[in-house]
Amino acid sequence: MASGLFGIEHSNRSADDHWEKNCFNSSFPAATANYMMENNIPAIYISLEEVDGKLKVVATEIPIEEVFNCKGLHANELYFSFESIFEPYQQYSFDTIDGIDLVVKDLKGNYLSPLEVKLTVLPDNTTYKKSEDKWGSEMVVRSATTSYCALGMYDAVKDKALEVREIFENACASIQGWDNDYEMTHKIPLLSESIDEFQRQFYKFQKPLLMQTLWKTQGKSPLLAENAFDIVIWSDYAFSRLFIDSSYVVTNTMSRPMRATARLARCLWELSKSGKIRVVDIYRQMAFGNQTDKEFSIPGNKWRNYVEATRTAHPILKKDMVNKIIENGYIEKLSPERRFDQTLYFTVRNQV
Fold first, then answer.
1. 292-322, pLDDT tens digit by residue?
2. How far is CA 211 from CA 25, 68, 113, 218, 319, in A?
3. What is the rounded distance in angstroms from the CA atom of residue 49 to the CA atom of residue 210?
4. 189-239 pLDDT, tens per residue?
5. Where are the domains of the chain?
6. Distance between CA atoms of 266 and 258, rounded to whole angstroms?
7. pTM above 0.85?
């Protein structure tokens, strides 16, 4: 049965599931990525490099084929497993790890890529009054994303565990209580510096983690801009800078960025020692009075500091590409009471 979405022929979601409220926000980005892959349109790639001895987030481009880790395969030869566990990472945790938004597999069941998926509007409330080239997009991040960030980082350098341990040992070994607010606020600078050193040494091992699909409107109006869609891929290393950089602003109590930084450092250190941890317990224990499902959020004006790409002013896909991504007749399955659905629905209906 056809999904009505470009390239999604094999999935753990039914044809109707894709159009439900909490599913369309990841199914549509997957279909958009499929369209870009099949038409050799690269995504924006936000990655971490060392420039003049300093770590710097830079914007380049990356083929979707590389994001999906599916060299030589077409979209119809892939299996899209939404909200699923990326089983290759389970080996690093005694407890059951969380699922991630999208797990890409081949039709033989081989695991290819785990991706967190975001669908965000451009501009947001913090940037819509600025000039278009300074518009940004808000991003809300779940704890599952940062746990996958830690697991993926370790997976890529697991054969260098001794080197990793040496980097973190000084900062981590003396910590008495990882859930102690007072102790951890004082340890954060050292933990942040240890992660910096880790990333400076291993940044060439970074890989895609988060797929952010942008939909651009005409300012605050519900109408799509002429250049309406694009995809920003964040590497695990670049993504981590969103909270590590903010953790250098030390407060009297643990802020969300500080908490995320401490969790990442602990995961990498403990994995380097034993190769297996209780990742869910670590995240539950180190809550510091904040809800555990939401890790942090990034407003558009801060997001823009990391995404220095000209394509954000002129997204690569025109608004009429929605007719290629969503098959004819399926637009009726959308729910116009939801903002993005409403925008797509009336955009398509006005083109008819």
1. 567 888 999 999 999 988 899 999 999 999 9
2. 12, 10, 11, 23, 19
3. 17
4. 999 999 999 999 999 999 999 999 999 999 888 889 999 999 999 999 999
5. 17-351
6. 12
7. yes
